[in-house]
Specification:
It is built from 20 helices and 2 strands. By secondary structure, the protein is an all-alpha fold. The termini are far apart.
Amino acid sequence: MGLREFVVWDYVVFALLFLVCASIGVFFAIKGRKKKTSKEFLVGGKQMSYGPIAFSLTSSFMSAVTVLGTPSEVYRYGAAFVLFFLSYTIVIIFTAELFLPVFYQSGITSTYEVSKYIIITDNSHTLVFHELFLLQILYTGIVVYAPSLALNQVTGFDLWGSVVATGIVCTFYCTLGGLKAVVWTDAFQMVVMVAGFVTVLIRGTILSGGSTKVWEDAYEGSRLSIFDFDVDPLRRHTFWTIVVGGAFTWLGLYGVNQSTIQRCISCKSEKHAKIALYLNLLGLWIVLVCAVFCGLVMYSHYKNCDPWTAGFISAPDQLMPYFVMDIFSSMPGVPGLFVACAFSGTLSTVAASINALATVTFEDLVKQCLPNLSEKKSTWISKGLCILYGALCTSMAAAASLMGGIVQAALSIHGMCGGPMLGLFTLGIIFPCVNWKGAIVGLLTGITLAFWAGIGSFIYPAPATKTLPLELSTLNCTVANTTSLLTTVAPTAAASRPLLADTWYSLSYLYFSAIGCLGCAIAGLLISFLTGWCFTKTKPCYKRTQLRNTSHVQRHL
């Protein structure tokens, strides 16, 4: 079932997105030419308003993985994904009331610099943090490559052209305009993302026979079975895996993530930062609901002819772009809007990563080695770091092309890294008695457990009895040599599976972050108990207490 490829108008609409983003970078470069300080470049002079910060936070974390992956997830597994609205709520509350006060009132730009005050005694130990943070480069490369590949295989959109263009444009406006350009570009991209979703929803709903028909089809296809209270941790998606496991996963991405904290501390005050986080929660809900309903509309449209099982596309991640090219086949330019929607998330994520990487490197390495740099030189070095990391992230997309299961791998890796980091910062903030030995052993324990479970799940996927994909039909498809009904069952398991394959390795991927966090916290407390609690007024215990008191953390606990 062939679909038309991109035409000139589609490319024009898509190119406009890149042009506007680049123009925002130029605007802030000209506007801020008289404020040439590293503080202005990296954190917007700490004078940002909460409105654009809220938009920026939503856009940077709702990447193309969300635009392409969430509708596909709902299409195959049902609307239980909407329960993430509870996870997001928990995450934002903890971030705003527990983690933000520590980072904002510390007056420190890098989250890893804060770690030296709340946990680590020796700067050399912070290498552990930076090794984890540099995985952000690989993740960013994956975020660039994954949507480009999916769109290329369905729409004919040039693969490496889009990868290179994304890297160049992001690097361009990050380098010229700094954090202000990144934030305002994110705000624009958020609008584009929602506009793309709404356009698809309206057109898809009309072609499916109206919202009532979509709802009926979803109900008959078991897509509306949302509340499953099974406590089995091996089940892929239940109420508990999504709400509890999802909260741990997203807290690792929000609560202790450099990109998030850097935006928050750029606000005029802590109060403004909290308002930005809570407004961002509203944005997360809106994007989530749009993505979930897109999945239901897509199911209604293809309920009797699933393009994946029929062989029209080769992977579930291609469902959304295939759907767009199908329903807008007679409307040139509109598919270009959807591609702009998908790449808005990508641009935002890449820009956030470049800016965060540059900030951490400058604050934790450059300033430590060259403490007497002038503001002019500091700004130029910061811009040079943006160019460096922009090139590295773009190049890493080539490495991502060699990986399999790109989208799921990206999310799992982020969860496996975020969990141990979350556990470490939780130890430092909530448990002042933990010493640096406990912190390091706890971090390594969390990383080991999370990666053990995660890598094991990649090698030995959970059986279909735990993932429970829903039935998909090809009844009305013109497909040669196939039965009238196909279902999305997992590949047959190999004859020889280790004992842990159906237990430890079959844990829901949403629990990887929880495993890393709890493993880190428990091991950290145990080792600190065995080696002697940190109760003296020597560095860093005394500084940690000062930081905690300054941040008023006690009143939040």
